[in-house]
Amino acid sequence: MPKVGMPDIRKPQLVKATMAVIDRVGLHGASISLISKEAGVSTGIINHYFGGKHGLLEETMRVVLRQLSQTIMAELKALPKDAHQARINAIVKGNFEGFQSESEVVKTWLAFWSYSMHDEQLNRLQRVNEKRLISHLKIELKSLLTPEQANLVAHGIASLIDGIWLRGALNPDGINPDKANAIINDYLDKQLTFYAKQ
Q1: Which of 17, 96, 97, 110 could make a disulfide contact with 169, Cβ separation 3.0–4.6 Å?
Q2: Residue 120, domain member (yes or no)
Q3: Of 87, 91, 71, which is closest to residue 79 (Cα–Cα)?
């Protein structure tokens, strides 16, 4: 967590530099020295305000998660409250568009997932993000399905989002947002049709 007093101009600069370095050399190669050089600051500034690489990585992920949340909330705000399937599509779309689909962000996500398995604080951020996604989906799905069905489909959609992200991060061509949306919407349509027949 950055210390109080960190100049607002420096935080975005350091976060951007962190993602750029992770994009080039991966998380393990992303040293404080390389990040500070990329940002044009001294290593002392990173250590002072973030306590080192770990603190800077945590702040970088907080920025990425905030951006994801803001994108999804903006998408939902633009839709009527009763347009449940469109709102689900908007939640899915928010995971694959704009900032979230940039190469540097995708590689940072992949590094974060890997690192969070062995780090309590980053793992907590991942769990918060997962719970938020499931909650958003269940709110909309509960108007279309029973609570048990909504829970199952929400987890299915979340798994597809994560799987497409992982495959996209490992693919030299990256994530194809149109294809990602088509795959998940196809799954959703099939689930809604299946449960409607029961």
Answers
A1: 110
A2: yes
A3: 87
Global confidence as pTM? 0.87
Distances (CA, A) of 196 to 110, 140, 160, 191, 193: 37, 16, 22, 8, 5
Q: What are the start-end ranges of the E strands in 6-130?
A: none
In angstroms, the CA 42 to CA 50 distance is: 13
pLDDT for 134: 97
In a domain, 90, yes or no: yes
Q: Please tell me the distance from the alpha carbon of residue 27 to that of residue 7, in angstroms, as a whole number.
A: 25
Give the residue numbers spanning the domain of 187. Answer: 64-196
pLDDT score of 18: 95
CATH number of the domain to which 149 belongs: 1.10.357.10
Q: Which residues of the chain have pLDDT under 50?
A: 1, 3-4
* Half-sphere exposure for 11 (CA within 13 Å, toward CB): 18
**Cβ-based neighbour number of residue 174 at 10 Å:** 14
CA distance 87 to 71: 13
H or E element at residue 121: helix 120-141
Query: Distance of CA 29 to CAs 21, 34, 63, 99, 147, Å?
Result: 8, 9, 21, 23, 45
How many domains, in total, are found in the chain?
1
